[in-house]
Amino acid sequence: MLLHVxxxxxxxxxxxxxxxxxxxxRLTWPVKLTELPETGGRIPDPQTPFKTVLLDERGKTLSSExxxxxxxxxxxxxxxETRFVLGAADGHSSAERDAAxxxxxxxxxxxxxxxxxxxLMEQLYRAASILAGHPYHRAG
Length: 140
Known about the structure:
Layout (H helix, E strand, L loop, with lengths): L1 E7 L6 H12 L4 E6 L13 E11 L3 H13 L4 E6 L7 H6 L2 E3 L8 H20 L8
Parallel strand pairs: 1-2, 1-4, 3-4, 3-5
């Protein structure tokens, strides 16, 4: 299953970009990173069937294990692409939230956009590691 991260804004050269690149290299699942301008731009057509996850402060907070199980179930159900969408500073529209398969939040705090992108990449790597039984993820 393709993990497709779609983000508004450019990450450029930054510590967060280095973290994104680090986890992108480590992931054994196929990954695609798409950057869009703050407004406008066209999201590429998905591989079907697909799921859409919006990173949204009003979303669910999932444990790493639950997040991994969700991705594993989608993969096993034949989902070809899961899209993870990080919106612009104003977030997502009501219509976008209503159409999403999952609204995901990294806790109740508000995170800087670039840091949220790096955190997402780490959680994708952690989820793949959990599903593969890799020791990267160790329970408390």
